[in-house]
Design goal:
Structural class: alpha/beta
Strand order of the largest sheet: 5-2-1-6-7-11-10
Number of strands: 11
Order of helices and strands: EHHEEEEEHHEHEHEEEHHHHHHHHH
Radius of gyration: 21 Å
Helix content: 40-55%
Number of helices: 15
Strand content: 5-15%
């Protein structure tokens, strides 16, 4: 059971705390309940405030905390929600949280910041020389305050090792589903999204979601290469050119890539493209040639064969099963009479 702690901060948008609580709590549970199947909760979810008291969010909403910060033990993942727009005031009010986050990270916890809450992660120094995102309206001031961070304000979600960031208030949904997938797998993340009627994950304003695949292996250069491949999905991939980009020979790069991910680079890229194609099939009305082109294939017949080989079904069958506009997979099963 993955242990998640959602921090509660005065003055922020309550949805940035409530959404993670609900999404992690629903993973492995709600979809199964709707279909009359046995539930298998994937996350143990709790909340904490500085002193254990309720917090007052924007608009007067009060949220009760289960415990005080000092009583949090053994979290695998800590979520930091938005605290509003007063960054200077928040850094003063929540100063004790910064060293606490550093200690939790050193003990093995992953950290996830949402919207303005990313400031507390930046203040820890854990994002120095690493990619991060925040709300576009805050990006310029954050760049001035934390210039060592590689700010990418066009991204909905970023990952830097065990530190994750979400760009805005409703990007809390994207980040939470991204983390459900990371810890519980793609199928559980998709089931959770469908059960809650939430749009599946976006990682960039202009793009579509590409799920993370085996990026927590500890090889920083290969993880960076994986990130580059996700961001340049349509481009033709030459292993020797990618190896040079990350300062390795083609042979060394290929060997390390297989050791880290379990797959050769080209096989891994095909997997990324198929996952992206699943998303497009599930969330839109593009034609198959349009989808093939969007994920990097000019030959539609090759794409169709590849998709079938990796999923066991043709693209049209996948769309029929999982498209949000219909399909049997979204309908709950009736319970049998006992």
């Amino acid at each position: 059971m993955i242990r998640v702690t959602v921090l509660l901060l005065d003055g922020g948008h309550g949805s940035t705390a409530i959404a993670p609580l609900e999404i992690f709590g629903a993973a492995g549970v709600l979809w199964q309940a709707l279909r009359g199947e046995d539930a298998h909760a994937r996350f143990e979810v709790g909340s904490a405030s500085l002193d254990g008291r309720p917090v007052r969010c924007d608009g007067g909403l009060r949220i009760g905390a289960e415990r005080a910060l000092a009583r949090v033990r053994g979290s695998d993942l800590i979520v930091v929600p938005s605290f509003g727009l007063d960054v200077d005031g928040a850094l003063r009010r929540f100063a004790r949280i910064v060293p606490w986050l550093r200690r939790q990270h050193a003990r093995g916890a992953s950290l996830a910041g949402i919207c303005s809450g990313v400031a507390l992660l930046a203040e820890t120094g854990l994002l120095d020389d690493k990619p991060a995102t925040t709300h576009w309206a805050l990006a310029e001031s954050y760049e001035q305050r934390w210039p060592a961070v590689q700010w990418q304000a066009d991204r909905f979600v970023t990952q830097a090792g065990r530190v994750f960031c979400a760009g805005g208030v409703y990007a809390a949904l994207d980040l939470s589903l991204h983390l459900v997938e990371r810890y519980a797998g793609y199928d559980v993340a998709m089931q959770t999204a469908r059960a809650l009627l939430v749009e599946t994950r976006r990682t960039a304003q202009s793009g579509f979601s590409v799920p993370a695949r085996r990026s927590d292996h500890g090889d920083a250069e290969i993880a960076a290469a994986q990130e580059w491949m996700r961001d340049h999905l349509k481009e033709a991939l030459r292993v020797d050119a990618l190896a040079r980009r990350f300062g390795m020979s083609a042979r060394s790069f290929a060997r390390r890539f297989v050791q880290a991910t379990g797959e050769p680079p080209l096989t891994y890229l095909h997997g990324l493209r198929v996952e992206a194609a699943k998303h497009l099939l599930e969330n839109g009305a593009r034609t198959l040639p349009e989808i093939a082109a969007a994920v990097g294939y000019e030959d539609v017949a090759f794409f169709r064969a590849l998709f079938r080989r990796r999923t066991g079904v043709a693209p049209a069958v996948w769309r029929g099963r999982f498209a949000r506009s219909g399909g049997g997979a979204t309908r709950p099963k009736k319970r049998r009479a006992s």
